[in-house]
Design goal:
Helix content: 25-40%
Number of domains: 1
Largest sheet: 6 strands, mixed
Oligomer: single chain
């Protein structure tokens, strides 16, 4: 498995929490949801890496030009601007989600529990198997623990003992489970753990996580699959040209992500039968990304693999030891024409296109509009 996400473990850094609120659109009197609760990894994280855990030698996310495009300063996001979850908040006329570990943030409109470098499988598994790339102690189980603590503070323990309190939380909340699991595959590089083992364990942990949310009373849930991880710059950088697919990306990595997603979707279908009162939406990150790669000009992209922020020039402008934000790196002139931001994460332009495909097009199943209609019907 190409170590396409090794850079994730290198870019975890302690940096100051910084959030930015998006005001409700003028004239907006009602919003479909009162809160959003988000989970995932660096593709969704808005600042939980301020946990103080992780290496400091490779992280430059607290440095410009991170955040330069939209916020005009670093904001704890692994991009030049907004992430998918930010565009979701905008779509719902809600503030951007503060990270859970920012204790001073206003949580009245929801919380983001996602952590950069986070895994689906618990951290101790990787320690036990000498997977030294995993330096992030927070896993999906950590995020669930944080969420349970927050729910308990609002009187929601479970639907059996505190049904009214849980109903009050979840009837007005959108649960957004961002992509999670890419790091699990990357962290086994150099170990005896197989990709099949990771697939089985990661999917078990992820589906158990979604089931735990549904058992708590989650009613409106969006679950993202893995993207085409073989299209990330670092994956291309580390893999020979003999491992390529029809869109020019790393075939083995994309096949792995596709297989993972196929099993994930089947389990979500089981949950729809088990929890008929819940609306469970699958956001097809893999096919959205693949569609963009098939016709990038349609979406305004000129550079498919070359990073906007990096060093060394060449076809990829990427050097593992000169990452974005380091003294030797520089930023491209028009980030919106690039898909890849720093080698592992995407540009705001790419996140914007993907979020539009999720929220307004046909890359969620059932459509996101269906979820909104069900919420509006429920009142």
């Amino acid at each position: 498995m190409p170590s396409f996400a090794v850079f994730l473990s290198f870019t975890i850094l302690v940096f100051a929490a910084s959030t930015h609120a998006f005001a409700a659109k003028p004239g907006t009197n009602t919003r479909p949801f009162k809160k959003i609760f988000a989970f995932g990894d660096s593709f969704t994280d808005t600042g939980n890496t301020v946990s103080g855990e992780g290496p400091s030698g490779f992280g430059y996310v607290s440095h410009p030009p991170y955040g330069n495009t939209f916020f005009h300063h670093p904001t704890n996001r692994y991009s030049d601007g907004r992430l998918v979850i930010d565009f979701v908040a905008e779509k719902l006329s809600m503030p951007y989600l503060p990270p859970y570990l920012n204790n001073n943030a206003d949580r009245s409109n929801g919380v983001n529990f996602a952590v950069a470098g986070s895994t689906a499988i618990e951290h101790k598994f990787f320690v036990r198997n000498n997977c030294t790339l995993n330096v992030t102690p927070q896993s999906l189980q950590t995020q669930l623990y944080w969420f349970k603590k927050l729910l308990a503070s609002q009187g929601c323990v479970n639907m059996t003992t505190t049904p009214n309190q849980c109903k009050a939380v979840f009837d007005e909340a959108l649960i957004w489970v961002g992509e999670i699991g890419a790091n699990d595959y990357a962290y086994i590089i150099g170990s005896a753990v197989t990709g099949n083992t990771i697939q089985q364990l990661a999917l078990k942990r992820t589906t158990n996580f979604v089931q735990a949310l549904l058992n708590k009373g989650a009613k409106y849930v969006v679950v993202q699959g893995l993207p085409t991880t073989g299209c990330l710059t670092l994956s291309m950088y580390l893999t020979g040209e003999d491992d390529r697919d029809d869109i020019g990306c790393v075939r083995s990595a994309n096949r792995q992500s596709y297989s993972h997603n196929t099993i994930y979707q089947a389990k979500l279908e089981d949950f729809r039968k088990q929890f008929p009162e819940a609306v469970i939406v699958y956001a097809d990150y893999w096919n959205a990304y693949h569609t963009i790669m098939k016709n990038p000009a349609k979406y305004g992209f000129k550079e498919l693999f070359k990073v906007c922020c990096g060093s060394s020039g060449g076809d990829l402008n990427y050097d593992l030891f000169g990452p974005c934000g380091s003294p030797v790196s520089s930023m491209c002139t028009v980030p919106s024409q690039y898909i890849n931001w720093d080698g592992v994460h995407l540009t705001e332009g790419m996140y914007k296109v993907v979020s539009d495909m999720f929220l307004n097009e046909t890359f969620t199943h059932p459509p996101f509009d269906y979820l909104l209609k069900k919420k509006m019907q429920a009142g």
